């Protein structure tokens, strides 16, 4: 999928919303056909392939979901459920909570609620995390620049979402894809070449593939500069990676705040989230930035991947090994 093609689709959908506002506001079915289906298709989902997309999905426990997006062909459990509403329907807390209950009871990791114009993506399997902090992205097509919408919507790009651990795109990483959009004065950080993992016999696994559930203790870490360390805490993965990025000149106040969804800060110039809430636990890094170290082992790994991506680094360059 080319980003300029996605921007073109978004521009087309904006025109349709204006031209057919009355009809779309009255009909969920028409909203799905005119607005939602084309955008899912542009994001790599083949709506004619039941191995990828199943409309009116009936999972265990009854009830129907408007769309189930499957990670792999023939997978038994969807990666994400999409709840659709008509264009005029607001995405209220009640709508979000109903979709959440459906997904949570079935162990589905992500959900989207949309009326064709507003798109809200949530990560659900974060135990103890308040619902507002589970929101990974919120997009309103007719209110935001099309290229910014496209960047946020890449969370729903099939190769990204099907991985089960979608990584947000950021404008510094993808700036070359938009030749006609304004550029910032901040220099673009060029990604470093991927590091080839050692032979599997050594037990090293790229950060993107490491499963914390299979390790009872915090792992060993190998950073791209060759540094190895036995970690004492799971947040050490995030901490040691952040310190390597600082040494490499990649993590500075200019990159802050580093967030997972625009609300929850991972690294910031002060120990607080975008909402104003203070970190439940933090570590002061060597350059004075504040690291949010609160969360499960899975969340620490996810935060590390997001931080690396924000700094233009390939997450496979960090290697982990179980004890």
Oligomer: single chain
Biggest sheet, open or closed, and with what strands and sense? Answer: 6 strands, mixed
Distance between the termini: 40 Å
Estimate the global geometry from the Cα principal axes: globular
Order of strands in the sheet with most strands: 1-2-3-4-5-6
Q: What is the H/E string? A: HHHEEEHEEEHHHEEEHEEEEHE
Please report the total strand number as a whole number: 14
**Low-confidence stretches at least 5 residues in length (pLDDT < 50)?**
170-201
- Amount of helix: 25-40%
Structural class designation: alpha+beta
What is the CA-atom radius of gyration, in angstroms? 20 Å
> Kindly state the mean pLDDT as a whole number?
81
What percent strand? 15-25%
Number of helices: 9
Short description:
This protein is α+β, with helices and mostly antiparallel strands and about 325 residues long. The protein contains nine helices and 14 strands.
